[in-house]
Amino acid sequence: MDIHSKRDIGREYISKLELLGTMHITSSQLYSWKRKGLIPKEWFVKKVTRTGQITVFPRKLIVTRIRDILRYKEKYSLDKVEKLISPETTNRRFSLGEILRIKEINPDILDENKTNFTYTEILVLIVLTDFQKKIKATGIVVSELIDILFDVEIRVETDTVVIAEYKGEYFSIITVDDNVYIPDSGCRIVCRYNMCEVSEEFKKKYESMLVVDREEMVRKCIETITKEIGGV
After folding, report:
1. Which pLDDT value is given to residue 175?
2. For 6-85, CATH number?
3. CATH 1.10.1660.10 intervals, the chain
């Protein structure tokens, strides 16, 4: 294992001790959120220093995540916080109607036969809509990439989706931590998307969509309809 200096750690990571002090949380809170899936276990990184081994975290990601957890805890129950923080780990399916409300998704790239979507599929559609806008890609190209990316496992917390071009053909690469190896000099990277960053932006903008309780929503609709019928 490589030995990292404190200077190197400070540039890329934040130590557990510094994190606890900066965010005013306890170690038990930190590990409780880890167990509940609110903080990915991949973010708990063991690093060797000259004085021993310490636990560090990706600075930007962990600070943003803990701020979100603390903020959402004031508004929602812990179950809803989990749905909002880590929607990709739930079994939640989103309806076509919900997808059409997302301005970052071009409705023209949707499969008319598909009526529900996972959270990760939503992020893929956002990414490919952006890709299409940037290079004016045809619907056929985008459709092929959708089929490929819908069929592979994408770990939102750690993966980067890279769109590359080789001799006029476009293809996708799934990488970890933004590390990309291009085997041929004739291949060029067109776009790259850190899926965690895409996810964080989406959650900020569509918070209400993620925390909605469908059973509660259906119950309220039934109650409203019943009252209207009763009042006739």
Report:
1. 86
2. 1.10.1660.10
3. 6-85
